[in-house]
Design goal:
The protein is mainly alpha-helical and about 260 residues long. Helix content is about 60%, strand content about 0%. Among the domains are: about 90 residues, no CATH class; about 55 residues, no CATH class. It is built from 12 helices and no strands.
Length: about 260
């Protein structure tokens, strides 16, 4: 077993991210937004057999009607289904029953495959699974105007606000705070980290760390190291920028509004 050392919380975060990418690639999970899905071999094989049976069934029915004129096609059908020995009606019915049986088998296999896929999706992307089960589709959304969006958020965040420092409420709070004892030093432990992780949604959009909570939860060997390095950030006052910055994702809920 190889132990990888990390000097600080930023390096540990990079290690979690690399581990998440590696596991995702090994499981061959398609990235979000990718709609390309390779059909399994068994499905291709069954669909090819069904297609051939349908084509041959149509030819046999034309033969019954007397509209099949090509001698080569009749010879081919005779080799496949022994039409001369069984009779045209019997051979046609046998092909029809084969077609029904193969179609039913394809439906059973597809149901099993869907169940397996949902189980795998539950392990890797629960949010996507619940969206599919609920029949929600990601509709194409119009891109918001950048200038308008920037102005909207600037009006909320960039405008300085002058507060009344002599407000009566503040005076009351200062008086009450005099009797409050000083807070004891905080110690971040592994148990505290794991307790906080329990309340985090697995696939909620990550911050600048680019790591979903699912991976931090399941890389349990790193929980002790994460706790130690977080405590180090707290005690030294040296917090990396990616931990304190955020970003705003503009998600249009209703285009009509």
């Amino acid at each position: 077993m190889v132990t990888m050392k990390t000097a600080d919380i930023s390096e540990t975060n990079a290690l979690v991210y690399a581990g998440a990418r590696l596991v995702t690639e090994r499981l061959k999970v398609k990235p979000k937004g990718s709609h390309v899905q390779n059909e399994p071999p068994w499905k291709k094989r069954l669909e090819k057999q069904i297609k051939e049976l349908r084509a041959n069934l149509s030819k046999l029915q034309e033969w019954q009607k007397g509209s099949l004129k090509k001698k080569k096609e009749k010879e081919q059908l005779n080799r496949l289904y022994r039409v001369n020995q069984k009779g045209l009606s019997v051979a046609t019915e046998e092909v029809r029953q084969r077609l029904v049986a193969l179609s039913a088998r394809l439906q059973r296999y597809e149901a099993r495959h869907k169940e397996w896929r949902q189980n795998q999706l539950f392990k890797t992307d629960q949010k996507q699974l619940y969206q599919e089960l609920g029949g929600q589709e990601k509709a194409k959304q119009a891109v918001p105007d950048a200038t308008e969006s920037r102005k909207f958020w600037s009006d909320l965040w960039d405008q300085p606000v002058q507060h009344n420092s002599n407000a009566e409420l503040l005076s009351q709070q200062r008086t009450q705070a005099k009797s409050v004892p000083q807070q004891a030093n905080i110690c971040i432990t592994r148990d505290a980290v794991e307790q906080q992780l329990k309340g985090m949604a697995n696939w909620k959009a990550p911050g600048l760390d680019e790591v979903h909570a699912f991976w931090i939860k399941n890389f349990t060997k790193l929980h002790g190291k994460i706790a130690k390095q977080l405590h180090q950030c707290l005690s030294e006052g040296n917090v990396p920028e990616w931990m304190v910055l955020g970003r705003t994702n503009l998600a249009m809920k209703d285009e009509t509004k």
